[in-house]
Specification:
The strands form 3 sheets. This protein has a 4-stranded antiparallel β-sheet with strand order 6-7-3-8. Strands 1-2 form a two-stranded antiparallel ribbon. The protein has a two-stranded antiparallel ribbon with strand order 4-5. It has about 220 residues and is of the alpha+beta class. The chain has a domain of about 140 residues. The protein contains 7 helices and 8 strands. About 45% of the residues lie in helices and about 20% in strands. The N terminus and C terminus are likely disordered.
């Protein structure tokens, strides 16, 4: 609200008049499209995926029966699994380490997006992201080749350690192509509830989540 003073030319007296200034807040419905447009033009949706051999297998029903009998337990209430490869073996730890580091970097430089598996990256950071991820992939492929060269030995050790739980059918004939990673930029359309949010509140929430994640990632997933 503002007050203005005017002078009457007839009487020479000063009179006060009040004028009201209306708020200039822009409705959320008008700012939401702008927020959606900024999301499309400034951010890229990046998806990181891994091809990975599962090394934990659920025991077959007859194996669960044997395990339950040893503990005098009901098989139906028993959940049991086995590791088909020694995950503490240096060759396996090498591939797992690269995956952890690559995932940690991806989550550190991106922001969460409602769609599972997709995170947001500033478009002007795409070049740096790609140049950083490519060495991770090369390291993973090199580590996978070393793991593959020890595969027969790892299977032999597993057979000795698993005893009657060993099952040749659990093991693929080769590890070629079973440890790899790739990333891609996918098109995004901001969800309706997201574009309806106040842009400033959304920006603050992004910053809060990013700071929390940086404090807890520690370079690993």
């Amino acid at each position: 609200m503002s007050t203005a003073t005017t002078t009457s030319h007839d009487t020479g007296q000063h009179t006060a008049s009040r004028t009201t200034t209306q708020p200039t807040n822009t409705p959320t419905s008008q700012t939401a499209p702008n927020a959606a447009q900024r999301l499309r033009t400034t951010m890229a949706a990046v998806k990181l995926s891994f091809t990975w051999l599962g090394v934990r297998k659920t025991l077959a029903p007859e194996q669960r029966t044997t395990a339950a009998r040893a503990f005098h337990a009901d098989r139906d209430l028993l959940s049991a699994s086995k590791l088909i490869l020694d995950t503490k073996n240096p060759a396996y730890r090498a591939v797992a380490t690269v995956r952890s580091e690559a995932s940690g970097y991806w989550r550190t430089v991106t922001l969460p997006f409602p769609e599972a598996g997709i995170w947001l990256l500033p478009q002007n950071s795409l070049g740096m992201f790609a140049s950083t991820m490519q060495p991770y992939r090369e390291r993973l492929q090199e580590a996978a080749r070393e793991l593959s060269s020890q595969y027969d030995q790892l299977k032999s050790e597993a057979q000795q350690r698993l005893g009657t739980l060993y099952n040749q059918a659990d093991y693929p004939s080769t590890l070629d192509g079973l440890f790899d990673m790739e990333w891609s930029v996918v098109p995004i359309e901001p969800p309706q509830y997201l574009v309806a949010l106040n842009p400033e509140v959304f920006r603050q929430e992004q910053a809060r989540v990013r700071e929390r994640r940086r404090g807890g990632v520690g370079g690993a997933v």
